[in-house]
């Protein structure tokens, strides 16, 4: 089943938040808009989110906003590239040629978003398995986001959401920011 991201004006989003059953429906999730959000992102986010149930279009969109503000040319001081901010070592593992142009390009919306979703689905699967086995504590989605930011090894070593040093100043706020930014997107499945 395809998932689509439906964008609503901010006022309508707040109005829906108090509208009884509609606002409480599990089929609707609030999300956010960035000035760089466009139809190409929307289309590829919806397609990429079909890779697994746990990673919704709204999570991917909020994550891209947190990573790059939807900038395809983003390059971090640490070498993370493109809208989904893959470091070269991670791109070597997860990079895909989703648009069929013959190149797996971290600056390409189709390639980056498809790889991001696959990586997040794997992180979520591993986190959910760890929580079920009792080796990890926390919400599997929060742990998957933390793993995207800090690496799954950091999540494993911490037994859950990493804390201390950069984990407290970078990873924890990263997870919180993405979960908060969902509050302005509306996604329906």
Automatic annotation (TrEMBL):
GO terms for biological process: peptidoglycan catabolic process. The keyword Signal applies. Residues 1-17 form the signal peptide. SUPFAM superfamilies: Lysozyme-like. It holds the Pfam family SLT. Residues 47-159 form the Transglycosylase SLT domain. This is Soluble lytic murein transglycosylase-like protein.
């Amino acid at each position: 089943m395809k998932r689509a991201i439906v964008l609503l004006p901010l006022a309508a989003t707040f109005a829906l938040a108090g509208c009884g059953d509609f606002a409480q429906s599990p089929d609707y999730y609030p999300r956010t808009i960035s000035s760089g959000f466009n139809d190409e992102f929307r289309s590829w986010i919806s397609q990429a989110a079909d890779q697994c149930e746990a990673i919704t279009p709204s999570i991917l969109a909020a994550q891209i906003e947190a990573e790059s503000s939807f900038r395809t040319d983003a390059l971090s001081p640490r070498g993370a590239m493109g809208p989904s901010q893959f470091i070269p070592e991670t791109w070597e593992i997860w990079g895909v040629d989703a648009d069929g142009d013959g190149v797996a390009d971290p600056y390409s919306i189709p390639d980056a978003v498809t790889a991001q979703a696959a990586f997040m689905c794997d992180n979520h699967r591993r986190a959910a398995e760890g929580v079920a086995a009792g080796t990890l504590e926390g919400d599997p989605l929060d742990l998957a986001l933390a793993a995207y930011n800090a690496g799954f090894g950091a999540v494993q070593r911490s037994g859950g959401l990493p804390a201390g040093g950069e984990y407290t100043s970078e990873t924890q706020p990263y997870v919180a920011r993405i979960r908060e930014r969902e509050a302005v997107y509306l996604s329906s499945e």
